[in-house]
Specification:
One of its GO terms (molecular function) is FMN binding. The chain is an alpha/beta fold. The protein has helices spanning 15-27, 53-59, 92-99, 147-155; strands spanning 5-9, 30-33, 78-84, 107-113, 134-140. Helix 1 crosses helix 4 (147-155).
Length: 159
Amino acid sequence: MGKRILVAYFSATGTTQAVAERLARAIDADIKEIVPAEPYTAADVDWRDPNSRSSVEHKHREMRPALAEPIDITPYDVVFVGYPLWWETAPRVVRTFLESEDWSGKTIVTFATSGSSIRGADGVQLHDSAPAAHWVAGRRLAANVKESELAKWVAGLHL
């Protein structure tokens, strides 16, 4: 492919992390975790609790949880951005990451993990957080997706 590729991901429970690690191996990419300054606990991600941190962030779309440290995307041509689907969209900390970088000349491909939902995996709802990027529609990936399937998917993207 000849392009420098980064897999950047946010994972609250480890599911997205496992997929991101397999993706990075499958396409020989660097990998970085999107780490919130305040880590999410199990109680924070309890979607059944309207007062949990994730529920409050979902209700308040302007919220941008701080990052523990920035991720330098400068050396990369393509960045795969992975996240769990929360209410059919990316957690707000993913927007913090997107909005903190200069995406001019960069390509973003999203991938999402979810037990059931597929809406939101293509990343369209995130375009306004990185309008200078060239966006390639992403997809939902199963928690147990194999490296060979990931390599085939990426090869079909014609990046």
